[in-house]
Amino acid sequence: MTTNPLSLYQIETTARTALLSSAGLPGLEAHTHLAPKPRHGWAPGVVPDGARAAAGLVLLYPIDNRVHVLLTVRSHELSSHAGQVSFPGGRVEADETLPQAALRETAEEVGIAPAGVRVLGHLSTLYIPVSDFALHPILGTTSSRPPFRPATAEVSRILEASLDTLGTVGPRCGYRWRGPERFDVPYFEVAGERVWGATAMVLAEVLALIGTPVRDPWTGAAPSPPRGSAENSQR
Question: How far apart are CA 13 and CA 20, in angstroms?
Fold first, then answer.
């Protein structure tokens, strides 16, 4: 049986409720499932003292009645994470809040005006060992697909991933090499690009937050019922 994808209104309502819930965010489990193995220097839920603060915007918006999330392919000319898929974002300046930093970086990278974004709240902070950044994902929405003006020095390609498709297809497992060491890497495939690492880990939390957690990429096991579901309430 097929079901209709959630509307932006339904996702906003679900996300706002989950962000305020005393049950806490689903980031710990979601991040752990989608973390590469091994992931040196990372412990689930731990952010080391002194890590540099970065903010990224997880922007949701509708295209043809399906809610999508904005991703960017970083320029191959950048000094760090070149060519990887990420959320728009960057370093937090001393005089700005986390949402302000995420909105500023998004405006600089892809040209989306901050005034048009509704900020819903903060997702779970995620430490990125290779760059020593503490990533603070900020969840936001726009009522319609925004116009994009990518800064080519930073962004080589814009990707728009359907949340419905991400949740249905789920992550796969592949591998990458860094020197002589092999890493097993869960990833989502979007428009021919592999979305892995911190970006995939945050996407897994977004899907869990709105009630569509993905299967475990390591075992293929179906996800646990969302918190508050009828099945969980009977346990």
Answer: 11
Which phi-psi region, left, alpha or beta, contains residue 91 (left: φ > 0; alpha: ψ -120 to 50)? beta
Report in angstroms the alpha-carbon separations of 70 from 61, 85, 229.
8, 10, 28
Give the C-alpha separation, 141 to 119, whole Å: 7
State the amino acid at position 128 in one-letter form: I
Q: Who contacts 50 (Cβ-Cβ below 8 Å, separation ≥6)?
A: none
Torsion sign (Cα): 72, 19, 165, 65 = negative
The pTM of this model reads: 0.91
List phi, psi (to 5°) of 12: -60, -45
Nearest residue to 81 (alpha-carbon basis) of 30, 131, 19, 135 = 131
10-residue mean pLDDT profile of the chain (235 residues): values are 80 95 91 93 94 97 96 72 82 96 97 97 95 96 96 90 94 87 92 94 96 87 55 36
List the domains of the chain with CATH numbers: 8-233 (3.90.79.10)
Digit-coded pLDDT (tens) for 118-166: 999 999 999 999 889 999 999 999 999 999 999 988 898 999 999 999 9
